């Protein structure tokens, strides 16, 4: 360890140094940098319909920037000139349960500006390196050290500017970033491939079973071809050797990451198994549907999800695409109770009673033969994604501390 030195923020190679975000950043700003709350209220108006610029928020990141944006008009955008976004900037949420979440601004086909409750930072050099640094355990520990409040955790822009961070040669920063970004690139390609495969299955489903459906009166319901599974489990009372293999669905069709121990998973959950299909009861306007594949042995999900198991394996892909279809979304939205958005809730019985014109058995078999190949490919891709993510997450803290050396 003779080539390392203890600093105020940890052990680093002797040729690294420590500085502050303020000294190393080109800009650190946020929404309220544009004016007082009164002036913001007077000069900025939010719109739910497409307008001049997109207001980038934490919720957009959680949705994968796939839509349902909030917009501002050109006048509001010009007023918010101190938090204009071009793409690639580092965003760190600084208010609420997810304070400390780090993401980068995507490049969208619209002007963009930063929403409330986040800080934007752009470094003079090594922006990619510092993106990964703040996502690393060391960076997250530093952010947590300035968080205040228990009911609503938060940290302010001034404290963030004063945070100490490592400084290292640009070539080394770029080498570290290249390793991590190459892994992220491979992961993103696999996610995109999974999305394409899902779209192929959904398109073929619509063509065969909606557009080309035979004009007959006979209908079939979800209850005729699947059973509703409610196998409850309380994680805190599950044997440790089994519990550590449980996982919880995230709002991303292509992966189900391992959960962390915490109060949010101690309550009752449903146990799920490969071959089963999940659909959320919440917000049917944006259906959340998952096919549980071989990656997800010993998994659990919130009781806010409904779990269905096909009575016949040949109906698996059919049911999955049925639950993801636009027609199902419209039916469940119409049957839901509650206000708009995420507060809407669907009665489980309405899901189980979903009907569709009875498909030809030969067509079902053929659809199964074709679509199962696509879902199996998604399964293999997901395994590879998890392996790459594990490698990246293992390397991340070692690279950020200099314990894994990057060759120039």
The computed structural class is alpha+beta
Mean pLDDT: 87
SS summary, helix count: 14
Number of strands: 22
CATH architecture field of the largest domain: Alpha-Beta Complex
Apparent shape: globular
What is the CATH topology of the largest domain?
Answer: Adenine-n6-DNA-methyltransferase TaqI, Chain A, domain 2
C-alpha-based Rg, rounded? 24 Å
**How far apart are the first and last residues' alpha carbons, in Å?**
21 Å
Query: How much of the sequence is in beta strands?
Result: 15-25%
Instruction: Provide the helix percentage.
Output: 25-40%
Main sheet summary: 5 strands, mixed
Detailed description of the structure:
With 408 residues, the protein is α+β, with helices and mostly antiparallel strands. It folds into two domains: 4-168, Alpha-Beta Complex (Adenine-n6-DNA-methyltransferase TaqI, Chain A, domain 2); 185-389, DNA methylase specificity domains (Adenine-n6-DNA-methyltransferase TaqI, Chain A, domain 2). 39% of the residues lie in helices and 20% in strands. The protein is built from 14 helices and 22 strands. The protein has helices spanning 21-24, 37-43, 58-62, 74-79, 127-135, 137-145, 157-161, 170-211, 222-225, 240-243, 316-324, 326-335, 348-352, 361-401, and strands spanning 4-7, 10-13, 17-20, 25-30, 46-47, 53-56, 70-72, 84-85, 90-93, 102-104, 112-114, 118-123, 164-167, 219-221, 226-229, 232-233, 269-272, 277-280, 289-291, 299-302, 305-310, 355-357. A five-stranded mixed sheet has the order 5-7-6-11-8. It has a four-stranded antiparallel sheet with strand order 4-12-9-10. The longest helix is centred in the middle third of the chain and has 42 residues, at 170-211. Mean pLDDT is 87; it is low at 240-265.
């Amino acid at each position: 360890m003779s080539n390392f030195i203890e600093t105020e923020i940890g052990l680093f190679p002797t040729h690294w140094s420590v500085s502050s975000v303020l000294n190393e950043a080109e800009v650190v700003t946020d929404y309220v940098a544009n004016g007082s709350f009164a002036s913001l209220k007077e000069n900025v108006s939010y719109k739910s319909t497409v307008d001049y610029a997109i207001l980038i928020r934490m919720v957009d990141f959680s949705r994968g920037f796939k839509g349902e944006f909030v917009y501002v008009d050109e006048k509001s955008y010009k007023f918010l000139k101190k938090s204009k976004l071009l793409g690639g900037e580092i965003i760190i949420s600084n208010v609420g349960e997810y304070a400390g979440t780090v993401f980068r601004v995507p490049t969208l086909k619209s002007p963009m500006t930063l929403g409330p409750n986040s800080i934007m930072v752009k470094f003079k050099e090594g922006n990619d390196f510092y993106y990964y640094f703040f996502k690393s355990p060391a960076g997250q520990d530093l952010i947590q050290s300035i968080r205040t409040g228990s009911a609503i955790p938060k940290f302010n822009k001034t404290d963030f500017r004063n945070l100490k961070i490592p400084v290292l040669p640009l070539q080394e920063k770029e080498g570290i970033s290249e390793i991590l970004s190459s892994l992220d690139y491979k992961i993103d390609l696999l996610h995109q491939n999974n999305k394409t495969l899902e779209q192929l299955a959904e398109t073929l489903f619509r063509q065969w079973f909606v557009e080309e459906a035979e004009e007959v009166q006979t209908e079939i319901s979800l209850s005729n071809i699947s059973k509703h599974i409610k196998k409850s489990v309380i994680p805190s009372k599950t044997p440790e050797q089994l519990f550590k293999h449980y996982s919880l669905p995230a709002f991303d069709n292509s992966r189900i990451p391992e959960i962390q121990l915490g109060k949010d998973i101690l309550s009752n959950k449903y146990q799920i198994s490969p071959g089963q299909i999940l659909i959320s009861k919440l917000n049917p306007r944006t259906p959340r549907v998952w096919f549980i594949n071989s990656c997800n042995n010993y998994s659990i999900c919130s009781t806010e999800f409904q779990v269905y198991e096909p009575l016949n394996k040949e109906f698996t892909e059919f049911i999955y695409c049925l639950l993801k279809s636009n027609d199902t979304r419209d039916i469940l939205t119409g049957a839901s109770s509650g206000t708009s958005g995420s507060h809407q809730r669907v009665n489980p019985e309405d899901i189980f009673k979903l009907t569709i014109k009875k498909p030809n058995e030969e067509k079902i078999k053929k659809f199964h033969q074709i679509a199962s190949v696509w879902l199996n490919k998604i399964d293999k891709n997901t395994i590879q994604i998890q392996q790459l993510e594990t490698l990246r997450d293992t390397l991340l803290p070692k690279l950020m501390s200099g314990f894994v050396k990057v060759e120039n």
